Amino acid sequence: MLTHTWRKSSRSGPNGACVEARLAEDAVEIRDTKLTVSPILRAGRADWHSLLRTSGR
């Protein structure tokens, strides 16, 4: 069961094409809104935090 709604990346541009993420019980789900039918990627929370640290967020 998902615990949060999709949230737009703060680094996304104003053209409506963005990356969104939401929390699931045991993971973070990520999608690309510029794709009509976007696959949803799942990352463990530890991996997600590592990615944010690596990207300077």
Question: How do the helices and strands line up, and which of them pair or pack?
Answer:
Layout: E1 7-8, E2 19-23, E3 27-32, E4 41-44, H1 45-54
Antiparallel strand pairs: 1-2, 2-3, 3-4
Task: Considering the chains and any ligands shown, give keywords for the structure.
57 residues, alpha+beta, globular, 1 helix, 4 strands, single chain, four-stranded antiparallel beta sheet
Structure explained in plain terms:
The protein is an alpha+beta fold and 57 residues long. It is 18% helix and 30% strand. A 4-stranded antiparallel beta sheet has the order 1-2-3-4. The N and C termini lie far apart (27 Å).
**How far apart, in Å, are the first and last alpha carbons?**
27 Å
Low-confidence spans: pLDDT under 50, at least 5 residues?
none
Instruction: Give average pLDDT, whole number.
Output: 82
How much is the radius of gyration in Å? 12 Å
**What's the total helix number?**
1
Give the SSE order as H and E letters: EEEEH
What class do helices, strands and sheet pairing give?
alpha+beta
* Percent of residues in β-strands: 25-35%
Shape: globular
Described by strand count, sense and barrel closure, the largest sheet is: 4 strands, antiparallel
Instruction: Trace the largest sheet across and list its strands.
Output: 1-2-3-4
| Helix content estimate | 10-25%
Number of strands: 4
